[in-house]
Amino acid sequence: MPADDAIIALIQGGRAGEAFERLMPAYRRRVFGLAYSLLRDRGAAEDVAQEAFVKLWQALPRYDGRAQLSTWIYAITRNAAISAMRKRRRLVSMTDPVVLEEVECRSAMPSTEPEDVALWRQVEALPDKQRQAVTLYYQEQRPVEEAAAMMGLPVNTVKTHLHRARASLATALRIAGMEST
């Protein structure tokens, strides 16, 4: 991305502050989106996004260019989200009815079209890795290789998650279609 090239040039020029000023608005939505896709809780995703930007600010002078800037940012965000999930698991049980109700109330759909709502409701029900792969590949339009790097998984594993997710979604939507007729 041309914007990434400008940010990288600022980092390499020792101007991390200016680089961060450009990085934050360019990646704000994507960082939040990734955090939300992992946590499925708006408040927690906002906290993780903020934490990720603090970590990015601290690590920016050490960015060495071995990975694409976006991949590096997503890896930091993913790690922050995983840490938050571990903390949250220790604090609450997902089988607690109050927690389940809150998760359902907060689930956000990318579109209000009935078909899209049904699809994204099914995506939300996928196992974590499949949901992450679908979100990165289809919603964020990331190549499989980049999604794999962001998820910290081998490319073939991400392809498997996508294949299984598509099969699950096709079955779930076919069943939902039969029930509505």
Care to give the gist of this entry?
This protein is mainly alpha-helical. It contains 9 helices and no strands.
Structural write-up:
The chain is mostly helical and 181 residues long. The protein folds into 2 domains: 1-93, RNA polymerase sigma factor, region 2, helix turn helix motif (Rna Polymerase Sigma Factor, Chain: A, Orthogonal Bundle); 109-181, Arc Repressor Mutant, subunit A. Helices cover 80% and strands 0% of the residues. It is built from 9 helices and no strands. Helix 3 packs across helix 4 and helix 4 packs across helix 8. It is elongated, with a radius of gyration of 18 Å.
Topology overview:
Elements: H1 2-12, H2 16-39, H3 42-59, H4 69-91, H5 97-106, H6 114-125, H7 128-139, H8 144-151, H9 155-180
Helix pairs in contact: 1-2, 2-3, 2-4, 3-4, 4-8, 6-9, 7-8, 7-9, 8-9
Please report the total strand number as a whole number: 0
Approximately how much helix is present in the residues?
over 70%
Give, in order, the helices and strands.
HHHHHHHHH
The pLDDT mean sits at 81
CATH topology of the largest domain: Rna Polymerase Sigma Factor, Chain: A
Going by helix content, strand content and strand pairing, the class is mainly alpha
Helix tally equals 9
CATH 2nd-level architecture of the largest domain: Orthogonal Bundle
Strand percentage, roughly? under 5%
So what's the overall shape? elongated
Radius of gyration: 18 Å
The CATH H-level superfamily of the largest domain is: RNA polymerase sigma factor, region 2, helix turn helix motif
Largest sheet: none
Q: How far is the N terminus from the C terminus?
A: 46 Å
Number of domains: 2
Regions with little confidence, pLDDT below 50 for 5+ residues:
91-112
Which CATH class of the largest domain?
Mainly Alpha
